[in-house]
Amino acid sequence: MQGRIFSRRGYAIGSTAALSITAYLLSDLPKKDFASMSMHEVLLTNSSEVQDVLIVGGGIIGCSLAAHLVCNPRSSSPQTPPSTLGKNKKNIKVTLLEKQTLASESTGLSAGTIWSLGAPKWSNAPPSDPNLARIEFSHLTNQIYESLPDTGFSKCGCLKLAMSLEESAFAYDEYKELAPLIEDPSNLLFLSRKGVKEKLSEVDEREVYGGLYAKEGSQVDALRAAFALAERAEEAGANIVENIEVKKIERDEEKRVYKVSTACGKTWLSKKVVVASGAWVNEVLDPALHLPIIPIKGQMAICNGEPTPPSLQSLPVIYFFSSYMWWSSNKTSRAAKIKITDNENINHCYGKRGSDGRYYFGGDRLIPSHSRDYEVDEVNLRRTMNEKAFKSIPAIRDIFEGEQVGSWAGIMPFTEDGSPIMDKLDGEGLFVATGFGPEGITIGPGAMKFFGRWVADGGDMPPILQTFGMKGRFEKKNGENRG
């Protein structure tokens, strides 16, 4: 078995999920020798010194948290923390353990689209308002990505399309709800059918009834973003170790630390532990702490983009209201909704042009046949594209049916109510950050600003995180509330 210390000297290529597509995504990174170490060297490098915080999971959430913990000075006075990551080291010992290679699961297989509305207007809602929180998280996430080198970040705008009168009415209701919560109202526009056509001339006006346009919407190369955050964390003193599988987390009350046991036989000791291992968070938690996380498979394809109409060469990120409206309106449990696979509206759909000039299309919300089901259902992927993207923007069909670089699937952690879980699981120092579904790239780095400060400083949960805690959200099978 080989263990590896992550280093900015090079990147590891490879993933159980999608080795070939990961290799493609990394193909234009500078060719560097990765710092591979024997397990003996890993064990020597990571001594029995007690850590202040140990993070389980090296996706966008874990990498963001590590960077925030070691990079920025802690201060509880401002309502909003600094928006960018400094390089100053703090006196805090942080170790991140990743089972495979960094960002090798849903993060590395993400399209990297960010629905952002700019800065929130704090005076118009309490800090605990979930819409206000998401606006703040995505705004900070944009600023963080923009401040990091080589992430493929660009503010291209996001366009969410309504393909029926009902969806257009829903879009208008969302506009009325969100517009008062943003500092600059011009960042969010409700568009008529004509307004959509003006934003994107390739739209078929017979199929589109309106939509919303987010001027601050953006995109990023998710894999590069995770690496950049990990590099920043490592530069500031975090210890990031790949190919180490955590098997068990126990509390040693006598020593007042957590014992984190791994498959290689090494045990780490830490004052606090944050589990951020995505869809597999329950694999390392005590069964008594079982979280209502549902693994859901999303699918995506990369296309070379020939032929490309001029109007699509600067394509904004495209979303569709149908699935968003249905999931938001259905009052049954999230698990029940996901299982209704014959309803086309379950399948999310999106498209974007990446910083590499290629086009990324996908969506879908499928129940994986097993915990590592990465097989692409090409029929379902094409059906989703045909029912939404091809109808509304016919030129996308030509791009999709042209030369494809590849297609792949990733497993995302969903919750029953569609919101992430960020909470403390005991009275000491065991935390969890999971259930972000497709929002990890969109709000994760911003959310980890607040979450990381809470983990480091202790005290009460910040108001902005309270809506994402466990209390009062989920029901046990016997009808008793988990919180």
From TrEMBL:
InterPro entries to which the protein is assigned, alphabetical: FAD-dep_OxRdtase, FAD/NAD-bd_sf
One term of GO molecular function: oxidoreductase activity
Statement: the UniProt record of this protein carries the keyword Acyltransferase: no
GO CC annotations, alphabetized: cytoplasm
Residue span, FAD dependent oxidoreductase domain: 52-447
Key words of the record: Oxidoreductase
Function: Required for the assembly of the mitochondrial membrane respiratory chain NADH dehydrogenase (Complex I). Involved in mid-late stages of complex I assembly.
PANTHER family, alphabetized: FAD-DEPENDENT OXIDOREDUCTASE DOMAIN-CONTAINING PROTEIN 1, SARCOSINE DEHYDROGENASE-RELATED
Protein name, as recorded: FAD-dependent oxidoreductase domain-containing protein 1
Native organism: Triparma laevis f. longispina
